[in-house]
Amino acid sequence: MESQSRPEFGRKPSRIDHLSNNLKLDLRAHQRTYEGAYTRTAITCLSFSILIIKLFSKEFLHIGLIYTIYGSIIFFLGVAKTSSVDIYYDPNKHQQYYKTAGNSVVLLFAISLVCYTSILALIIKL
Questions:
Q1: How far is the CA of 37 from the CAs of 23, 76, 80, 89, in angstroms?
Q2: Taking a C-beta distance cutoff of 8 angstroms, is the pair 97, 90 a contact?
Q3: Which of 29, 75, 77, 97 has its C-alpha lying 20 to 30 A from 37's C-alpha?
Q4: What is the pLDDT of residues 73-109, one digit of tens each?
Q5: Please, what is the Cα angle at 26 between 25 and 31, to 5 degrees?
């Protein structure tokens, strides 16, 4: 019997195989940011909201609710950004480039500002 190498049937080539090493590095950073940092932040906010809701009195329920909404928004923003990798082709330079996440950072800043301002207002109201 001859030893045959087993080809990988049905495996499609990776979408990033044709990219340069610098673009692959950018994609890995994209993955670490949205699948890692955003998810950890969302889990932390949701855990903190559970802690506030369970341990403190009913006056703190609104603060826990705001943290729940904030954590959910961060999680869904991370999921949405993970599924969309922003790589564009510039025909003038005949090369691809990676678009940074400036718009989502501004959106996250605005959401954070609103949430933390409302939490501060609720704490002052107590």
A1: 20, 13, 14, 28
A2: yes
A3: 97
A4: 988 888 887 776 666 555 666 666 666 667 778 888 9
A5: 95
pTM: 0.67
Instruction: Report which of 66, 101, 97, 63 is spatially closest to residue 82, judged by C-alpha positions.
Output: 101
CA–CA distances in Å: residue 34 to residues 9, 62, 68, 123: 32, 28, 19, 31
